């Protein structure tokens, strides 16, 4: 009797060891730097989270430790900056398109993502289908008449902190010392709720842009080939350097993103050379991934969708997914294959 109890226990232990070994063996696939596996790992962490939340009880200490462990592993696998600002003082280069696409791509992969609109034109929230005229916005948050939690709206594309035209008075209205930290202070209150926070900025270098830079780990600078020029580079560099010197020494420029890229254009060599020169001056690189032109990009906002949800197989949608892979340390071959 005792014999069989013992052998049962042994068998059980052997099974446990085998299971643990299998888990350990399968672990390296998660940190393997290939796209499919990163996605699998992302899903794995997400599933754990859902499982814990589904239990419907307050997570116990064990769950908490497990969750923290899953998140640490995820961070190891996907070393992407948490606070990213999309910036360029020129309008029409694709800041809002890039912001919303990254937000939606992260959301699709199960990441907890917040998009922040700092442009008084309110395009980010509008494109995500929000009624920005009648919303509580980032302006109310800066004024102190609403909390940041009250202003954030969950959407199908990801959470959004919208903006509207009221924010255009920011430069004049918010003039007390420390005004460069308004956004950073607010985001700190909710940062633990998100894996990534993507900030869309106005076509300007003003107090709002500085607020975004102060709150960010890194910048992405979209550019459109038709208005690509060295003009304006020194202004953006001055702003970056000022922010680095006084407010945020760790601010990095992740890269120049070529948007509205036409592969057939004979001008392409010049475009690539010029963008490489711009990148050199900003001490950064041109992303391998370029975003191709498609009418689907212009159509999506009218449906309250991102180009990824509106036309997932269109060129720009595939390119933005590739951009996210590249940001996560997993470059795809360029030109893209379908
Ligand atoms: N890859 C693209 N293909 C086609 N149209 C694009 C592309 N990227 C942006 N656009 C269009 O260009 C315009 C400006 O883009 P937007 O993202 O609003 O720029 P910004 O925020 O820098 O002002 C929009 O009408 C948008 O639909
Ligand atoms: Mg915009």
> Which class of the largest domain in CATH terms?
Alpha Beta
Which word captures the global form? globular
Order of helices and strands: HHHEHEHHHEEHHEHEHEHHHH
Task: Please state how the strands of the largest beta sheet are arranged side by side.
Answer: 3-4-2-5-1-6-7
Gyration radius, to the nearest Å?
23 Å
Q: Span from first to last CA?
A: 64 Å
Summarize the entry for a quick read.
With 338 residues, the protein is an alpha/beta fold. The chain has 15 helices and 7 strands.
Keywords:
single chain, 338 residues, alpha/beta, Rossmann fold, seven-stranded mixed beta sheet, 10% strand, globular, disordered C terminus, binds adenosine-5'-diphosphate
Fold blueprint:
Elements: H1 2-31, H2 35-54, H3 61-77, E1 83-86, H4 95-108, E2 113-117, H5 123-127, H6 138-143, H7 148-151, E3 153-155, E4 158-161, H8 170-173, H9 182-190, E5 196-200, H10 207-215, E6 218-223, H11 233-246, E7 252-258, H12 268-281, H13 295-299, H14 307-310, H15 315-327
Parallel strand pairs: 1-5, 1-6, 2-4, 2-5, 6-7
Antiparallel strand pairs: 3-4
Helix pairs in contact: 2-3, 4-15, 9-10
Bound molecules: adenosine-5'-diphosphate and magnesium ion.
The site of magnesium ion has 4 residues, from helix 4.
